[in-house]
Amino acid sequence: MKYLVVLGDGMADVPSVQLGNKTPLEFAKTPNMDNLATMSSIGLVKSVPDGFKPGSDVANLSVMGYAPEKFYSGRSPLEALSIGVELKDGDVAIRTNLVTLSGDGELATKVMKDYSAGEISTAEAEALVKAVQDALGNDIYHFYSGVSYRHCLVVSNGTTATELTPPHDITDKVVGEYLPRGERGGELLDLIKRSEDVLKSHPVNLARIEKGKNPATHVWFWGAGTKPKLTSFADMFGLKGAVISAVDLLKGIAVGAKMDCPQVEGATGTLSTNWEGKIEAVKNSFKNGADYVYLHMEAPDECGHQGDMMGKVRAIEYVDYVLGELNAYLKSTNEDYVIAVLPDHATPLTVKTHTREPIPYMIYKSAKPVVSELKYNEKDAQKGEYLPNGQCIITKMLETI
To answer: CB-based contacts of 39: which residues, under 8 Å, 6+ apart?
Structure first.
């Protein structure tokens, strides 16, 4: 038996007048989802427990079968695992974005223009983070470069009590009321201020400005947490697992859960990602003995954060294409298989950030297809079975058939 999760990050949304009062999932051309829906169980799942923010960290752990109430210790520590950072007891890892703030004058008066610094390339970002580390790093603070705009600060004997705000939650807003505050907030605020002097004249940024691209003007901190302690996926479920993703968060979950995580050349987490490479990575994972593959595609979420309506529609159509290719592959193996299709959370275009409402899921079992008149979308899913937590997805996938 093979198990595949096709996860379109942030794919769920709300109806839009511009799309004829449809959601992007309803509006997009999704022949493969439509076909599978006629033979699948469809419903809603609550992927974010009460008391937790609707982040991709909490939601993906939940969908993968790890109850956040037991296993969640913060977002950045998972990303730190992915880039090979060894956290010691007492260390606190903090997600560090390279961002573009606009406006002159004091930091508090600037506006969050771009939480991703124009989706800066990994090579450019690596040079900038090295410059920040050389100028601001010391025995207490150490900056590590990750992928694109996503990086990590490790604080020795740090705290998770500082109030920090994700930059994608405050796009186009003045940043003053969202700057670090509370315990040791002043220290992190000082690092943000000083990063401007390091970055403003860096050759990478000067070249980006000349090309009309957003420069990385500052570092921005959020998602603090401590050393994660995940039970191995094999011990939890008796399956050999693999994760395919472009982003450090999912790769870090894979490392912590002792799951395979093959690198996909050209995987970016955006619309321009290597879609074919991800398809091949899934196939190769199954060929190499994986029983369960978790395919994470970030593009719908990125478009949601950017308010890019037609980009999100295209991203969902790419997810549908990938689903069709992988369904055909699994069918060709002549082995029973299960496919789950869902987002981790919603990222509505109207708010450009994550929301916590239950999300639509679809589960297809080749050995026992069901007859369904529901389509795979937010509206029809309300008529199906409600699952009270994300862990129910893998439970339902593993049910004896």
So the answer is: 364, 369, 370, 371, 372
Give the whole-angstrom CA distance, residue 105 versus residue 196.
12
DSSP class of residue 77 equals: H
Is 326 in contact with 21 (CB distance < 8 Å)?
no
Joined tokens for residue 34 = 């439509």
Question: Can you list the domains of the chain with their CATH numbers?
Answer: 2-72+229-398 (3.40.720.10), 92-225 (no CATH)
Q: At what angle do helices 56-63 and 75-82 cross, to 10 degrees?
A: 70
CA atoms of 165 and 51, how far apart (whole Å):
16
Helix (H, G, I), strand (E, B) or coil at 121: coil
Tokens coding 51: 């008391």
Cβ-based neighbour number of residue 136 at 10 Å: 19
Structure tokens at 222: 């959020």
**5 in helix, strand or coil?**
strand
In angstroms, rounded to a whole number, what is the distance separating the alpha carbons of residues 58 and 49? Answer: 8
Distance CA 322, CA 338 (A): 15
Nearest-angstrom CA–CA distance, 35 and 150: 37
**147-191 confidence digits (pLDDT tens):** 899 999 999 999 999 999 999 999 999 999 999 999 999 999 999
What is the model's pTM?
0.85
Give the separation between CA 365 and CA 305, rounded to whole angstroms: 33
CB 13 within 8 A of CB 304: yes
Going by C-beta distance under 8 Å and a sequence separation of 6 or more, which residues neighbour residue 229? 71, 73, 256
